[in-house]
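Sharing a chain and its predicted structure for anyone who wants a worked example. Both blocks are below, sequence first, tokens second.
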Amino acid sequence: MTPATTEYTLEFWIYINLYVPSQFDKFVIEWEKHLKLVLSYNSGYISTCYPIFYAANPNLSASNSVNVNFTANGTPWGYIRCSVDLAKQLYFSFNEPLVTTEKNLLGGLSNIATGNTTLVFKGGSDDTKLTNQGVIFIRHLRLWKCYLCQDADTYRLDITNQTAIKYIDLLYLFESPYIDPDKITDIKAVQDYSLTANTNWIGYNVLDMSTYKRLTTTLSNNGNAYLCNEFKDVCSGLLKLNQVQNISFTGIQPPMNNRFTIELWALNTNISNLNSGIHFIWKNVGSVTLIKDSKTITTMNSYCWPQDHKLNLQNSITSDSINSLTSTTLNYDILQTSNPNNSWVWIRCAVNFTNRQFYLSDNAVKDIKADLVYGTVNNDLPLRYLWQNNETSTFIIAGGSLNGSTDIIARSIYLFNEYIPKEYLFKYK
């Protein structure tokens, strides 16, 4: 990578959602021969900007740093920036909406070698602390060869013919591609960079079916089958949804922009006993149903219902009643999986009322038909639910306990207030 001159800036948008923030070690971005930014947690999230970073001389980072506290968990995307001017020996950091005061650089600055630079993303010293702790998404990561060159037009990144001149000092603009999860794209140079995986990482991104799903019968588990989700001989199981009553999460912000996506991984141990099915209901938004096929009991039907306000899934408790909903000409799609016992199945129900399209997992995109007759449902219901100001939704996992001898497990459940394109994949095996 081409280095900057005496002025440089790193900025990006970030979304963090950690299950146990206090167990979060840290997340580090190193721009070699430029700066380092560390995200950590200590009674709250902290962003630390080290304006001088050179891997061969760690002492350069010790003299200069600035911390900014920020709220991340469960909030919308946040903006983080660190800017440096070596000539004037100044730097500052910015975490929306907090800005640190401009600070003077201390110590010698002449020990940074010239030549190409690299960009490295890495976790803390203990990779196991990061396992299954949550998610971090980074978008619009930009490297600039300037100190104070951003303005309102470049802040949210909307490059047009009128604003293009303001991006002259933009070195790189990195964004994850839609197709290949093992690469990151420099949009400015239209160039892909391969990502090198950490071989010690035991998160979802490097686990395949043979290492993630370990269902065996062992003496150490009293002869019972168990689910292993880490590299351990004895593993704690995920929650069995067939052994609990309905689960509700209230106060969820609904999708006000006519677009949404529901995504999850699911596993069951005996599809022939998934008689009542299980529903993942984003109330008055959309729903996903998993149930055995009413004709072929070794097949699981996964349904995407883009109009939950026209359904009453919680009262549909048999495979016949669920599968018969398709005969009422509702908008829906179905994914059939043969012999799914003890295998993870990926489900995504993505809906775009703006363009009147939706799709289910790897199925083709379908049109949302607005002129359907809905049987016993009032036909004057709108195409989609009309949300009012300050109205919230509920996410319900329903019906699991009504099924027989089959363990039902779900993980990585995502609700997006946006239509996720088919090519944008978050699924990792």
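Comments welcome. Helices lie at 59-62, 152-155, 209-212, 319-323.
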